[in-house]
Amino acid sequence: MSDLLRLLSDGRFHSGESLGRSLGVTRSAVWKQLQQMEERYAIALHKVQGRGYKLSSPLSLLDEARLRQACAVPLDVLDSVDSTNAEALRCLSVSGEVAPRLFVAEQQSAGRGRRGRHWHSPYGENLYLSLLFPVEHSLMLDGLSLCVGLAVQCALVEMGFVDARLKWPNDVLVGDAKIAGVLLELVGDPADRCHVVIGVGVNVNMLQDENRIDQDWTSMRRIQGGLLDRTEVLLVLIDQLLRQLDVIAETGFAGIRQRWEQAHAWQGRRVRLSAGNQAVDGVVLGVDGRGALRLQCDEGERCFSGGELSLRLSDDS
Ligand code: BTN
């Protein structure tokens, strides 16, 4: 199936006959595979009599051989999975894996977002990755999710997306639109031996969301105009991620705090922080040494941390 998709990934017309020839199967077998492909991957296919089949838009599929050669950590490249975070957690529970390991997928059927939300993960369009990482010192956990956000922001800047900014705790924005998100899941005793699954989703080539995303979003392709090489983007991202993890392992969040604040989109802005029905208004002062958000509220400075919090700009900001 993925051989067929690879042949079609250039976005050009291919006749049933030429596809069959390349795959060594009959035209009717090609037809069957195309139907299964459309259903399984929710991929739109154009069929034009006399010309053949083409994808509605070209795809940049992951180049597994190149990833294996260039990636600094062992990795699993998956075609379709419920969630790369879930896959990393399953791997940990089965093998008790201690070394870092990366899981990437072309598609997620149940991508997990923060605060129980769904993460839209269409086939071959964006990056969906999870790094299973053993935590050696509990100190590293302070501000870890901010550190990952910073790594994604740095990778985007390195690739020319210089307007990429952070939104506490770990969203990556361009303008007001979200381009990437981070979801950390911890297993084990944070004070002793534990593992963290570092999940990152980056909108790379997505142009449409079929109304599946309920917030303002953008993608690298929307900004740049052309199709990006997802393998290349992934390699830059992993390199930055491993670099920032080295920094936090060595210095704790203190070594990252200033750079994080410089990249924060809403530094000095008036915001509303919400948890369920409760909300607090204040001006963003920055983050503290553990990555908690510092707000100047009417009653004085207050610090907030926790995965269930969400931040918005105040109407009068
Ligand atoms: C957010 O809500 O901002 C966090 C989104 C995190 C999505 C990524 S995609 C790869 C990894 N696997 C998941 O199921 N979620 C994360």
How does this structure look, described?
Helix content is 32%, strand content 29%. α2 (16-23) crosses α3 (27-41) and α6 packs across α8. The chain is of the alpha+beta class and 317 residues long. The site of biotin has 20 residues, from α5, β5, β8 and β9.
Please outline the helices and strands.
Blueprint lengths: L1 H7 L7 H8 L3 H15 L3 E4 L3 E4 L8 H7 L4 E7 L2 H12 L5 E8 L18 E9 L8 H15 L5 E4 L3 E4 L2 E12 L5 E9 L17 H5 L5 H22 L2 H9 L7 E6 L2 E10 L5 E5 L2 E5 L5 E4 L4
Parallel strand pairs: 3-4
Antiparallel strand pairs: 1-2, 4-5, 5-9, 6-7, 7-8, 8-9, 10-11, 10-14, 11-12, 12-13
The structure holds biotin (BTN).
The site of biotin has 20 residues, from helix 5, strand 5, strand 8 and strand 9.
Low-confidence stretches: none
Query: How much is the average pLDDT?
Result: 94
Alpha-beta content class: alpha+beta
**Number of E strands:** 14
Name the helix and strand elements from N-terminus to C-terminus, one letter apiece: HHHEEHEHEEHEEEEHHHEEEEE
Number of helices: 9
Helical amount: 25-40%
